[in-house]
Design a protein that fits this description.
Rossmann fold, 8 strands, alpha/beta, 12 helices, single chain, N-(1-d-carboxylethyl)-l-norvaline Dehydrogenase, domain 2
Length: 302
């Protein structure tokens, strides 16, 4: 099957990886009427996926159409897909091996996309013979609430691939943006982790505790970020003021080029966050549930 044989709305879609993001992305395409094949090698995960998709459909007020969905442990199951989105862990070798096989089993003009949040697209698609059809499609969690998708073009990605990916994403209710340079972290994660680096430094240097950092973010500039971008805010207050502030503060901001010792120490101690009950702070089950509830109560930005 070729991409020219079917209209975009009828393209079969393959998802590789049945974790939280892979399942949520599958839900988006199923809700839009696409046939979706999801590949997940873990039997326990496969047993849970149909129920998770039904729950997402209920949350969205959509019908769960099991006829459109296929689940398989084998990558060969997505050979007939005209769009394949990889959503496995951020492991470059694993992603490269998946793309190498996809390049051999899928149609010659099928689009091969990766949901990586930080790894350059050119590295992930390095073993694909025709890299013009390899593109980044970075969804944000949860993608049925946070509608942005970063469509990342490497120096080898064809503009036609980018254009088609943008149209497909718009057709399922997402808000794609074109990232014109293939740099680690793309746009959103570069800004997010610049903030996170400074936040960790403030705690590490004894300026405040982790709870205070998050309280300040939620109750100051964080509350307006959904309505006003940071450069819009600079234009609002005046670039002369932004310049004056930068002259004072930039020399004193954290400039670490490697993870801060505090973060490294927490990971080495097994304090990994909510999943272990403690990270930057301790978490009770009720507190963890409340945080997840806050995430799910985000207004739909569709």
């Amino acid at each position: 099957m070729s991409t020219e044989d079917l209209p975009l709305a009828d393209w079969p879609v393959g998802i590789v990886g049945g974790g939280r993001m892979g399942v949520a992305i599958a839900h988006l395409f199923l809700a839009a009427g696409h046939r979706v094949t999801l590949v997940e090698p873990s039997a326990p995960r496969r047993d849970a996926i149909a129920g998770e998709l039904r729950a997402l459909a209920d949350l969205a007020g959509a019908n769960w159409n099991a006829v459109l969905f296929q689940l398989s442990p084998d990558l060969s199951a997505v050979a007939g897909a005209l769009l394949v989105i990889e959503a496995v862990n951020e492991n470059l070798e694993l992603k490269q091996s998946i793309f190498a096989e996809l390049g051999q089993i899928c149609a010659a003009d099928a689009i091969l996309a990766t949901n990586t949040s930080v790894i350059p697209i050119r590295d992930i698609g390095a073993l694909v013979a025709d890299q013009s059809r390899v593109v980044g499609a970075h969804f944000w969690n949860p993608p049925y609430k946070v509608r942005l998708v970063e469509v990342v073009q490497s120096e080898r990605t064809a503009m036609a691939t980018v254009d088609t990916m943008m149209i497909l994403l718009e057709s399922i209710g997402q808000k794609p943006v074109h990232v014109r340079k293939d740099i680690p972290g793309f746009i959103g994660n570069r800004m997010q982790h610049a903030l996170k680096r400074e936040a960790i430094a403030l705690v590490q240097n004894g300026v405040c505790d982790a709870e205070t950092v998050d309280f300040v973010i939620r109750n100051s500039f964080g509350s307006r970020l959904a309505m006003m971008g940071t450069l819009e805010q600079s234009d609002l207050v005046g670039l002369n003021l932004t310049l004056d502030i930068h002259k004072v503060i930039l020399p004193d901001l954290d400039r670490s080029t490697s993870p801060q010792p505090l973060l490294v120490a927490l990971v080495e101690q097994g304090r990994l966050g909510i999943k272990t009950g403690e990270g930057f702070r301790r978490w009770t089950p009720d507190e963890a549930a409340e945080l997840n509830s806050r995430l799910n109560s985000l207004p739909d930005k569709g």
